[in-house]
Every structure is written in structure tokens, then in C-alpha cells.
Amino acid sequence: MNQAAIHKTLAGKPGSKPTSGKLGLLFEKRRAANFTLIQDLFFSLYPEARHTASFESLQKILADHFQNRSAELKLQDLKRQGEGNWYQSGAWAGMQLYVDRFCGDLNKLKDKLPYFEALGINFLHLMPITKRPAGPNDGGYAVNSYSEIDPAYGTDQDFISLTAAFREKGICLMLDFVVNHTSDEFPWALEAKAGNPKYQEYYYTFPDRNLPDLFEQSLPEVFPETSPGNFTYCPQMGRWVMTVFNTYQWDLNYTNPAVFLSMLENLLDLSNKGVDVIRFDALAFLWKKIGTNSQNLPEAHRLIALFRLCLQVVAPGVIILAEAIVAPEEIVRYFGQDILKGNECEIAYNAIFMACLWNSVATKKTRLLRQSLGNLPPKPDTCTWINYIRCHDDIGLGFDDSHISALGWDPHTHRRFLLDYFCQRLEWSPAKGAVFMYNPFTGDGRITGSTASLLGLERAIEEKDASKISKAVRKILMLYGIILAAPGIPLIYAGDEIGMLNDYSYMNEADKVMDSRWINRPIHDWRTVSRLSSEKNHASGIYYGLQHLIALRKQQPGLADTRSIRYHDAGNDHLFVFERDGESDNGILILANFDDSPQVVRTSLLGALGYLREGQFQNLIDGKTKKVRSGLLEISPGELLWLRKC
Ligand code: GLC
User: Fold this and answer.
1) Rounded to 5 degrees, what are φ and ψ at 545?
2) For a Cys-Cys bond, which of 354, 411, 495, 568 suits 500, CB 3.0-4.6 Å?
3) So which residues are the catalytic ones?
4) Residue 222 beta carbon below 6 angstroms from any ligand 1 atom
């Protein structure tokens, strides 16, 4: 039993209606449940001999923030605990968006609630909305404040009222907690620059290059093109500061307990504003150690578990998403292991799923996808995935080399092929993407571009080729139909629902031109939205197709994350075949053809699994029952089937 399970027991009978009478001793009970673990974790990072006073402060922070949490949110915490692992339900359908680019500001976003409702979206990830530097700010991931809303987005009050509106509509809100770094304009950084030694210790600052050079020997580069190296000289301070991401993003020094305590306060403040899911940004980087790559270190895991267990005392209804775009076996560690199993993050990005989907698009083969997912280390059954096709970041090619070699491909050449395929270096490829952060020394590069442009829609429109346009539309729906049937929360990238293409305007903006990820951060096209119901074109095809798939997903109990998944070898490498909840009558068999030609699957496989009876099968997507006339079922290029068990 992990801490979450203990808290559920403390919350009382599942499903019982929470009342304010139940709020009484909650804090004491929750603190008691987590105390030993919190204490052990804290003193393992900050030795007891020197840090008892800090531990006292931690307890006061928890008590104060519980006190400040509104009765409404406290009741919601209780309700969620009664609902079990609410985030594993199949009823969620998510969207990620930049408020400014989507509609302008927080108030206007409130006006867009009907848009989300119509599409079936009930989970929103809003990209950073707090104050940031006026110049380059990494899309808000360089923070000047963890709590003050940037005036460009609205006021604190606007935000509170937005969260209330979300609650009323049953929309789950996810916000970032940029836990690894602040901007170089953050108050602590300004103090450090002004020579205040206390705040210089909030970051990793050094008087000379000795320690930075030692770190550099084993630190990789995140942004090699724009921000080579991991340290930046700050002339004002006369010291070097660690900047693993951009030069203006200063890495926080978590070996200093004051940093942990201040960041804990920031986390709890955010939770008390009515955020439901907190995305721990770049959390793999939280602890640094000379001689290592300073990613995924055991201390980072302990730190995250410490944040989690503290958050659980104050706001157990709030959960954490791990933004760890690392190797799959490392990602699952963010769910917590051993005594911390289920005590770290409840959700993680299924990055390997995303990358393998793109690999299948380019190669038209699905074995790597099937094998990578099949080999994914098991996650605790209280945790879930975010499944996505595109997000605001690049597509990294983080496949396991041994899986690529096992398919008879040379890993280096294969990655090179993928970059060429997606980034306009192959004449015949329909994809129109861009390279992100090519590193000439290692030959590594990542890919960026909108879903539609990467799947050929942009080129097809340029060529005015109707058949290529519909092929791209089919592929978009096929990829989304796959993640909508997978275990976890599907996250649609705003704009994808109407097939938005690459946005090249970033090339004319000085603070963005060096970051090709902006190609896929478009200004939402409301003109196209306004014509969806009256015009029949690629945008309406995608929109209504997605709307239908989302609604269908919500009707299928077999698609909740609590239900099983099995990958099947269809004997045809072009087909991706998996089954959800196959043991029950709710079973669904998903088949997708990644090839440009029709492909076949043996009907005996469908029969053996229970999806063919008397030569007939039923496809949930078009609602039709069809008869097969041979021992082979043909699946057209880009076609997706969700077969119902019969
Ligand atoms: C995360 C964000 C990314 C940002 C980086 C640094 O990876 O997703 O957009 O650049 O963190 O904050």
C-alpha cells in the first residue's frame, strides 16, 4: 500500500459524498500518514545534523498551505479520493495550448469553453502563463514569477475565475511547474547578480571554470545550436552560472534546502489556485553531480517524491505529470520504485510511443513500435500515461539502439534517414518538417513541424492534389485514433484538430528565429473554425473525424487505463494491431495500416481473438457490420479500424 492508498482509506468510503464536517482532522491524519517518508527523504538529501530547523520550516509550510486551501478545493480532494484513480478513466480527452496564440488571454479562453465542449475536450494543458522576460523566454519556460500571472494573459483574479469555470464544467486543468530553473530576471537571480551570496547559493554559481569544466566532461548539451555548453558567465556577478537549457535559464541548486522549501511553497501556492495536474517541467535534471550526465539521478527521484508527499498532505486531489523525455526504462522510474512506488508522479509522457509512431510513418513498418511498447517496463497500476503525437517541443529519436539493430538497421543511418524523411531532404517524402538542434559533432538532430505538415498535408495543398490531401487527413485521423484507444490520457495539440500547417512567422521574430520549435506553435485559425460546419474540406474532415473518435472513446469502458492492452503480431509488418480489454465482452481490436498500399490480415486471427463471427465483423468507427469474402481482410492505406468483440 503506498501513501495514495493510505490517503484514500483515510478519506472514507469510496463514493460517499464529502461534507465540510469531514475536513476536521484531515491535515493531522494526512501528515501522520506521510511523516516518516517525508522525514526520511528530507534528511537523506539534507542531513539531519545541520538541517533540523529547515525541517521545522517544512512542517510549517504544509500547515500554512493546508490552512489556506479553500474549503471547495478540500472537498474536491476528498471527492477525488473517493473516485479512485480518477485520472485513469477513459473519459478524459486532452488538449495542449498556448493561451496567447490560441485566443489571446485568460478571459477569452473562458469564452472558448463551448469550443472544447463541442470537440469533447475536458482536460487542458495551458502553457506557461506567469511573468517572464520581455525578450527570449523559451515560450514562458523562463519564469520571472511562479505565481504572478503575466499581464499579457490577464490578472490573478482572471485566473482564479477561469479555474472556477473549469471546475464547473468538469474540465481538468494542467499547468507547468518549471521546477528546474528560473529566468535570469527572477528575484533570486537579480539578488545573486547584485552580489548577495545567499542567493548565489540558490543557483550553481562558480568563481572560475574549475568546477564547470569538471561538470562539462560528462554533461550533454540540450540546446547545442543556440546554447552550447552548460555554463554562462555573468559579468554583473563576476561568476559562472549553470545554464543547462538556455543561457537565460538558471538551474536551481537543490542541494540548498532553502531552494527546496521556497519551491515547495511555490508548488503549494499553485495547487491552491485550483490547478488539478502539475506538470513538473524538465524534472530529470533536478540534481547535478560531477562525473555524471546529471539526469535521472537517485537524488532527483527522492526530491520529486518529497515534493509529491508534501503536496499530498495539503492537496491529495492534485497530481503530478513527469516531463521526462528520456529512455523508457528511465521514464517509468518517475512513477516511483520500491518503497516510493506510486509515490512520485502519477502521470508521465509516453515519449517512446510518440517517437515510434513517427518512425512507423516514415518506414511504413510497425515492428519497432510494437516491440518498443511491448518491452516497456510495467508501470505501477495506479499511474497512467499522457499519449500524444505532437507537443510544443521537438520529436527526439530516442529509440533504443538495440531495438533498431534487431530490425537489421544501423542505428546511426536509421536516425539519419528519419531526419532526412521528415526534414525535406528526400524528394519523394511528403513530409515538411524542420531540423531542431542539429549537433554536427554527434550527428544528432531532432525533428519539428506540425502534425499535418509532417504527414504531408502542407505539400498536398501546395500541389492542389486532392487525393494526397485526403491521404494526409486519413493519416492524421489514424494516428489520433491510435492514441485515443491507447491506455492513458490522449493529448491533442491545439491546431491539429483542424489540420493546421507549419507556421513560418517565427523566422521574422528576433527572439524566436533560432528556435525552430516555433514552427509548430501556430496562432489558432478561428476563421477556419467558423467555417467547419458549412464547408467540406480537409479541416472539417479532421475536426469531425476527431470529434467522432473522442465521443466513441468515451463510450467504451474497455479503453480506460485500468483495462488491459495486448499487442498482436498480425503477420504483416505494415499493420499495427492491438487489443484493449480483450478478456471481456468490451474488447476492442485496433488495426491501423501505415503503408501507402492496401494490406491484408488473416481473418483467422480476428476469429481467434473473437472479433469475427459467421464471417462478419463490426467496426465501431463507421458503425458498419461487414462480411468478409475471403480468408484475408483488406485494410486500405491509412485506414483505422476499431473492431467490437462479437
Ligand atoms: C521542457 C519544455 C521545453 C523547455 C524546457 C526548458 O522540456 O517542454 O519547452 O524548453 O523544458 O524549460
Assistant:
1) -60, -45
2) 495
3) 281, 323
4) no
